[in-house]
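Subject: Sanity check before I submit

Could someone independently write out the structure tokens for this chain? I want to compare against mine line by line before I put it in a report. The sequence has 80 residues.
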Amino acid sequence: MFLDILTPEKKIYSGEANAVSFPGTAGAFQVLNNHAPLISSLKAGQIKVRNNKEELFFSVKSGFVEVLKNNVTVLVEAVE
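---
Independent answer below. Compare away.
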């Protein structure tokens, strides 16, 4: 799936991912390839991105995530 992590100022990450874990406001959750469509709010916490080469971690403030047709778009206030 293709992942974009964006703040109001800039694009933080753009690329392929096999799995992404999120700090949802109703609890942590993970998105894998071919996930059902989803929109969720995010609380401050850590986003974990796994791809074929590495695991990446982003500490984020609150925001939102949209999953649609193997495209994941994350909009957050800031990345620390």
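---
OP: Matches mine. For the report I'm noting this point. The chain is about 0% helix and 65% strand.
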